[in-house]
Amino acid sequence: MKRLLVLSLALLTLAGCGADATAASDAGVNTSAEQNRVTTARNDAAAALLPAKVRDRGTLIVGAGFGSGSVPLGFYADDNKTPIGLEVDIAYLVAEALGLKPEIQVTSWENLFVGLDSAKYDVGFSNITVTEKRKQKYDFATYRKDDIAFEAKKGGTWRVTGARDIAGKTIAVGSGTNQEKILVDWNEANVKAGLPAATIRYFQKNTDTYLALSSGRIDGYFGPNPSIAYHVKTSGETEAIGKFSGAGPTLQGLIAATTKKDSGLVKAYQAAIDGVIADGSYARVLERWNVSTEALAKSEINPPGLPLTS
């Protein structure tokens, strides 16, 4: 696919795939199964870093934790069976650089980590932010910046610049995400300061989240910045009211290829990512999905992440 996307991304549930995919197509996104992905050459030096059992197997088993869909990070094509999106494209690039065939296994966010723990998946490519807590169990090779944002109905005066601005509000967030951790931490700090508590809501489907937002049952949604930017543009009914680093106020959040700690795979991923950055294929993938502002100059292994809190 050539650069057909002129926007960013929005959460997309399988149940609501038809309507949201139509919006994506209208916005200039190639949602067909025939993706004509950006490709790269085998990187022999990176491939040599693979454990023998993975290299000999010839496949890279990728956990893709977007079972509910996330345009254009990861979602199903028009055929409702072919995984496509930014994260899928990066997974393909890394697999090709390592001389492996990618096997994209779509799962839920929660089951993604279960699969990594059991070594069912070699790697997770699913907008996974590096956190200090996750570093206790997983190794990371970074490949993209991570920003998060608040979304609300268009035309309001509410803006979020920090913790105090969520006091008394009802806000939806994804369970188990770093956005949830930040929201919970902010809420606890507000309560200790004597401010009204926020009400945190969880929805299994993004269609339910946006129905609650349009009906006024929630005041806002806190999620990945690219998904919110995409939904703002395609829906015409909402607006972004605050953007932050996914790792908090003092650290730039980073998205990373994620593998079970001490699996022996992370150095190969880092080398593969550095290789596709150097040959330009990485930049073309990010441009394809309009996230060039999140590009990294190099991959890091286990950099500082969202901090632990007591």
UniProtKB/TrEMBL annotation:
Where along the sequence do coiled-coil regions lie? none
Name this protein carries in UniProt: ABC transporter substrate-binding protein
The Solute-binding protein family 3/N-terminal domain extends over: 59-293
Q: Which UniProt keywords apply?
A: Signal
How far does the signal peptide extend, from start to end residue? 1-23
Q: Say which domain of life the source belongs to.
A: Bacteria
Organism of derivation: Kribbella speibonae
InterPro entries found in the cross-reference section:
Solute-binding_3/MltF_N
Q: Which Pfam families match?
A: SBP_bac_3 (PF00497)
